[in-house]
Amino acid sequence: MTSDGGQPTLSVRGLKTHFFTREGVVKAVNGISFDVAPGEVLGLVGESGSGKSITGFSVLGLVDAPGRIVEGEILFQGRDLVKLREDELRKLRGSKIAMIFQDPMMTLNPVLRIDTQMVEAVLAHRDISRERALEICREALVKVGIAAPDERLVSYPHQFSGGMRQRVAIAIAFLNEPDLIIADEPTTALDVTIQGQILYEAQNLCRDTGTAMIWITHDLAVVAGLADQISVMYAGRIVEQGSVERVLDAPAHPYTAGLIGSVPGRNQRGQRLFQIPGMTPSLLNLPDGCAFRSRCPQADGTCDVEPPENRTRDGRLVRCVRPLVAQQTDGTAA
Q1: How many domains does the chain have?
Q2: How many CA atoms are closer than 13 Å to the CA of 327, on its beta-carbon side?
Q3: Is pLDDT of 266 > 80?
Q4: What share of residues in the chain are helix, strand, coil (percent, to 5)?
Q5: Left if phi > 0, otherwise alpha if psi is -120 to 50, otherwise beta: which for 265?
Q6: pLDDT single digits (tens) 313-324
């Protein structure tokens, strides 16, 4: 349930996505749960390899062999996507649920003109004329900062820069005003000015149409200005979850505190940049207990057991036996 008692657009419960390799089982996503309400932006953050992108692919049913969802529910407007057939999922993709990939060449066909690709994306889900579809495509390109849209529509992807291709991919995701957008680090290749414009349009879309959005990124500055809620992932699990203001102002998990401390600009002039020591553990061979304990400055013998998800006094969830902010006195677990 959402904070106002309504039904969330997306509700993920106990999701596990594993990859079955010759070396062993890679637990890329290992039992995560979260909700995204209509009009809300959830920031999904963490280091590379934490499971962020696989979470997005799992929601859309885009996990290829040897990977598969082994457990959990993905409820989209009350329907469990895990149980849907491929043809049913195909009807949802691009209309009700859209994804912006990190690499725009995963979205764009190099041998088709931009207008062909965009118009097909509209006509596949709407019963409108081609002329109206072209008008919608033109408006979408303008929203993402592409000048001379008529000229760009008749161009091919190879005639665009990398940043321009990414803007086209973002425009395609916006075309049908979906109920859920999953954005996988979509502004990484864009300059700061265009990035700001995309973030502004994303916020407007969510506010005006009630679109829910999952914004996958490693950039905490983007999350701070865009998201309402934040989920911090580490080694396939969510280690902290709550409102952006509470999590970023007073992190409860040592890993979240380390990510915030690693942001450039927080150090005084002449000081070395802070970094979290060590490396993310292999998902093939996760250690017993807390996966972060070998890198945690607060780790002790109590971290040898698997930490539960505790709820703090301010309402957030944190997977740590020694959180940096106080737990509820009754130790209520999620």
Answers
A1: 1
A2: 19
A3: no
A4: 35, 25, 45
A5: left
A6: 888 999 999 888
- Please give the Cα distance from 31 to 72 (Å, whole number): 8
In a domain, 9, yes or no: yes
**8 within a domain of the structure (yes/no):** yes
Report the CATH number at residue 259: 3.40.50.300
**Cβ proximity of 248 and 264 under 8 Å:** no
Residue/partner pairs of 193-199 with CB below 8 Å, 24 or more apart: 194/144, 194/145, 194/163, 194/167, 195/222, 197/144, 197/145, 198/144, 198/145, 198/167, 198/170, 199/225, 199/226
Confidence label for 194 from pLDDT (cuts 50, 70 and 90): confident
pTM flag (> 0.70): yes
Percent of the chain with pLDDT over 90: 63
Instruction: Quote the pLDDT of residue 330.
Output: 42
Using the structure block, give the residue that is written with the tokens 């995309």: 198
Query: Which percentage of the chain shows pLDDT scores above 70?
Result: 94
Closest CA to 106 of 218, 25, 189, 192: 189
Closest CA to 210 of 96, 42, 39, 41: 39
- Region label for 235, one of left (φ > 0), alpha (ψ between -120 and 50) or beta (otherwise): left
Q: Could you give the CA distance from residue 230 to residue 217 in angstroms, rounded to a whole number? A: 11
pLDDT band (50, 70, 90) for residue 39: very high
User: What single letter denotes the amino acid at residue 159?
Assistant: Q
pLDDT at 91 over 60: yes
Query: In terms of residues, how long is the chain?
Result: 334
CA gap 93, 98 in Å, rounded: 6
- Which residues form the domain of 301? 1-39+49-85+222-264+274-311
Q: Report if residue 322 sits inside a domain.
A: no
Residue 120 lies in a domain: no
Residues 134/115, Cβ–Cβ less than 8 Å: yes
Cα–Cα nearest to 298, from 259, 258, 266: 258
